[in-house]
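Supplementary Note 2. Why include the ligand at all?

Several targets in our set were suspected to adopt different conformations when bound, so apo predictions alone were not considered sufficient. For every target with a known small-molecule partner we therefore ran a joint prediction. The input for adenosine-5'-triphosphate is given below.
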Amino acid sequence: MEKISVCLRIRPLNQKEINDNEIIAWDANDQKIQLNKICLKELIAQKKVVNSLIYEFNHCYGQQADNYFLFSTSVKQVIMQSLDGINGTVIMYGQTGSGKTFTMLGKRNQEMLQNNNSNIQQLIKDSFANNQYNDVGILIYSMMELFKQINIDEKRQFEIKCSYYEIYNEFIYDLLREENELSEPLIFGTDYRKEFVIKNIKEFNVTSIEDVIACISKGEKNRHYAETILNHQSSRSHTIFKVLISAYSNESEEEENFTFSTEACINFIDLAGSEKITSSPISDDITRNSNRKDRNKESSAINKSLFFLTRVIALKTQKVPPQHIPYRNSTLTKLLKSSLTGNFKTLILLSINPGLSQYDQTQSTLRFGTSAKLVESKIEQNVNFDASYSNNQQKLNQLIQKNKQNEKIIQDQQKIIDSLKQQIQTQNGSEILTNFKQSEIQLVSKPSVSQFNETDVSLLEKTQELNSQLQQEMEKNVLLEKNCTELHKRLQKSNEQILTYFNSHKEMEQQIKELKLQNEKFEKLSQNALNRLSCYEGQPNFKKFSLEDLQNLEHQIQQCLQEIKIEKQRRNSFQQLNIDAMPLFTQPTETLRSDRSSASQDFRRIEEEDSLPKSYKKTPKKDVKQLQPKKQQQSYFKATSNRLSTLSNNENKSPLLKKPNLRDAKNFAKKIQDQKIQKPTQVQEEYRSKSNENHSQQGGQQPEQSKLKNDIQSLADRLYSLSEKFQLNRDSRVSQSRKSTNINRTDIIYETESELLGDSRTTIHKSNRSAMK
Ligand SMILES: Nc1ncnc2c1ncn2[C@@H]1O[C@H](COP(=O)(O)OP(=O)(O)OP(=O)(O)O)[C@@H](O)[C@H]1O
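The joint prediction is reproduced in token form.
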């Protein structure tokens, strides 16, 4: 959407006004117009204004500005766009005598129009040469510029038509008609866009500025004539000079380009004076010389049209829907509808009388302009689709026809190629070459053109022409075949690529499948773990592992492992001792005898050092039965059981089930050892005395030696079985205690420990046993 441009022009005071001591009230500068200080004071005193009045427009032209400057800075852009199919309207608005016609047609318009086209160009040239840029008006400058542009545009052809008409007392009169038709007003119709159009209006083709001047001249003459016959005052009508510009793209330039045509119209509208007729001094003059009744009628018609124009503009600025805007209420608004509703680049030029006495009229013009500058219009290019469509259709048909012909030629050539291929298959290449050469020789040796009659000549020429065409087509075919093979290769390549992609896609699918399965497995595992965790969470003694707990556990396990290591070393060393001690029992009696005391001392020392395994007891079988009754052994087991049960009972207090550790076992063993220490000494002494007795009685060395050996052996066996029983008993107690408690994390730890310790323990037992044996 684009806003309407509103510019203002303030004319200088004329001689009459100067003589009447008229005061200049307004200062115009760039985009502003305001009351000057002297007049402001005056008007404040008259209570017409309170504050300084400033109005802003697109451009404000002062008294020094001339028509050409006004044209080049504001009007030109509206006109130039019409060449590209954009409509334009230039409206002169202002009170009578403010300079509307002066701006539109120029100072010398009368002179120019009466000149009968004889020397228009010269007149314009002179004006330029003498810097008299007011001599010609903006309408003339616009048309001159249009022709200038058209003449330099080589790509398009233009058609320009002009029409000139006026609205007087709400009737439209065609000013380009013959004098006898002038009294017949024109009527409105609507076009396909439902826009108002004037029916049967005369349009004249113009190709130069002279033609334009001729049109305006004719129109002005008719106006004066009508003034007489219709008794109407020319300045009391609105005049519209309409220019229709059609542009067609130059077809001969590029055959491939479709034709493109645009249509645009420019309306140059010079409105009747906007003042109230009774208040105007000029109108007083008019009324004095004319029929008052007619003048009142004129006045009311002007007032009506200008009132509705102002109303339409006001409603448009208030964004009232188009259907509620009263365009139909006056002829002027009907005509200006398209200029105001859209698709028209509209420029309103306000012409202002500078005199203070005309303050009210000027103020009214300025208000109109302020309101009008808010109106927006949608500007679009008018493309003549019909013309371009028909042209395009025609071209399309031609192309289709051409294409059909080409297809036929290709088919014919294809047939020739097929036949040639067949020939190649039936004959060999050299024969064809020979045939071809022969036909060539025949062609060369054919009678000259002069020997033929005219028909023959033309036939020969035609044949040659066809041959060359055929050659060209064959070349084209070869090229096409080449292209086809290339395309085929590319197709194959892309097929291969697709296959590779397909395979990799399959592989990826397989991988995804496997990953999915793995994922499912992990999900199941994690679900199980979660279920187990929830089970444990339900337990009353469940305690979540903290880092500290885990560190403690690790520490304890490490300790246990260390103890196992020590135990293992101890047992190994003890085993070594046993091995070392074995020869003592196998040596001859003399050595035994001599070494007995030292051996028993060694044995005792070992016992004292607590290096003797629990399973080992060096007591003669016979004497153990007498001196160490079963009862005594049972008491040891009982003590062990008690100890274990105490440990089991302590489980709830301790974070870990206290399995008898090495220290406990050590203490416990020491306790047993303490009790045992006296017994073997006693047994040994008794045994010694007894053996001495036997020895003295039997007097032989051999039976005493074997007896001793047997006794030691049986004693060792017995001791080992006892220690095994002790071990079994302890394990059963432990398992019982374990069963009696809930499975909790202590069990898990205990299991780990027992696994570690149990294995090594079994190994130690086994090695001990084998060593003993
Ligand atoms: N810019 C100007 N410089 C000098 N003289 C001017 C200028 N504008 C207008 N005039 C003079 O003022 C007088 C009135 O001008 P013009 O006829 O153009 O007024 P108008 O607004 O067209 O009046 P009407 O509505 O009656 O047609 C003319 O004599 C004209 O020469």
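The CA atoms of residues 145 and 597 lie 150 Å apart. Residues 398-518 form one domain. Comparable summaries for the other entries are listed in the accompanying table.
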